[in-house]
Amino acid sequence: MGWNFPWASSLSSDFNFDFNVSFTEQEQREGRIEYNYERGGHAMDETKEVSPVVAKIAASCGTDVPTYVLDRPGLSTFIRQGGAIYHAYSAYARGLDGLWGMYQWLDRAPKGRNENGVWWRRHDEYART
Question: Which residues constitute the domain of residue 43?
């Protein structure tokens, strides 16, 4: 159809901090993290007891929990009209599931994702039969 989309990266910028998906260690220690339009109460907040699920995911990424939770999932879209740029949409946490194709199928299964702890595995982590 000839469509194209100008993509931009937030690498080496304050963008992720401005849109509340990246945080400083000080914000984390002081419980000042606001994520998904809510302050505190998230499974990844350091001020809470660390969830074993979060600890396992952090370890699988090769990092510790405090470092892992400094960045969280988020998506924002913008449109430029004339000389103005408008923030059109944001999604956080499970609001991003639509971008991860497998979740759409699992959500429609009889028991949904049937989650229990860290339920996904990488292709090389399944038992060989």
Answer: 20-122
